[in-house]
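Notes to self after the call with IL:
- keep both proteins in one doc
- input above output, always
- annotate only the second one for now

Protein 1:
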Amino acid sequence: MCAALRLLETADAVWARREAAAPALALGAGQPARGLPSLDPARLHDDAAFFEQAHEALAGLPAVELDAGQDSFRRALMNDLGHRAEGARFRHLDFVVAPYTGGDLHAEAQQALRAHPLATPADREACIELVRASARQARAMLAHTARQQAQDVYPSQAALPAARAVLRSVIQTLPPAVIPAD
C-alpha cells in the first residue's frame, strides 16, 4: 500500500476516534454529537496507546513517497498525536473541576445536548444516551477528584472559587438524581 494511502487511513482512524468523544468536532462537521470525552482511567490509557500507535505508524511512512503537502500534514498530525498521547497519560493530574477543564467538559456536553436533533425516534434515543453520558461524565468528575484527593493532589487555593463555580453549574444543569447527595 502506498504511503499516501496509509497516511489517509491513519488520519481517518484518528479523526473517527476523536470525533466519537468530542462533541465540538462532530458539531463542527454538521453532525450530531455521538459521545462525550471520557475521564475513565482505562479509556485514557487506551487513548494514549491508540495515539502512540498512530504516531508510530506515521513516523514509519517513507517521506520520500509523499508530496510536500502530504508530508507537512503527516508531521503536523504526528505532533498533535504526540501531545495527545502525553495528555492522556497525565490526565489524572488534571483538575476536572477547574474551569479550564471541567468547565469546558460541561459546556461541551450542554452544547451537544442543545444542538442534538429530535426529529426521529432514533434522534431522541441518541439524545437520551447523551444525557446518560453527561450523567456518567459528572460522576466520573467526582470519582476523578476523589482519586486525586486520595493521592493528596489538590488544586491551588486560588483555583478553588472557580472550581466551586464549575461544580455549581454542573449541579444546576443536571437532574438531581445524577449528583450524589454527599
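Protein 2 (the one to annotate):
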Amino acid sequence: MMQLKHPKRGFVALVSIAAIAAGTIAVTWAEQRTDAQRSVTDHPSLFSAPPGCSSPAQSLARAKKAEEHAYFHTERYPYDPQDGIDAVGEFQEAESCYRASGLPEDATRVGRIASNLMARINVDYASSRLVLENALDAEHWALALSEIHRLLRLTEHVRDHAYVAHLSSIVGKVTIRANAAR
C-alpha cells in the first residue's frame, strides 16, 4: 500500500477546492439577489399620456363607443390584466371626446372611473412586485413564478423595458426551482 508523504497537503487542497466552490456559489447567489432587488425598484409605468379623441368630427359617438368598450375591458381585467390597461386608455379617450362634444359632466364622470381603475391597477402592480420580491427572498418558488407570470401579463405592452427583460430572464430559473421544490 502506498503512503502519502504529506497527507495534510491533500486535505488542504480538498478544503481549498470546497471553499472556492462555496465562494463561487455565494457570489452567484448574491448577484441573482441583487438583480432581483434592482428589478423591483426599476419598473416601467403601465400608463402613458392620456389619448386624445381619435375622431373629433364625431366626438359624441366616439365617446360613447370608447366608454362602452372600456366597461367591457374593465369586466375582463381580473382575467387578463392587459384588458384593464386597455380600459383605462378607452375611458381616457371617452373623457377627451366628451369634452370635445361639450359634455363636461360626462367627461368628469368617465375621467373619475379612469382614475379609479388606474389606481386599482397600480396597486395590483405594486402588490405583485412586492409579493415577487418576498417570494424570491423566502425561496417560495411557486408563488414567485405565479407573480412573474402576472407581472409579465401586466407589462405586455412595454416589453422593451429592462424590468420586463429581467422578468423574462428569470422565469426559466424560477420554473426549474419551483418544479424541484415539488
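Annotation: The radius of gyration is 26 Å. The first helix runs from residue 7 to 41.
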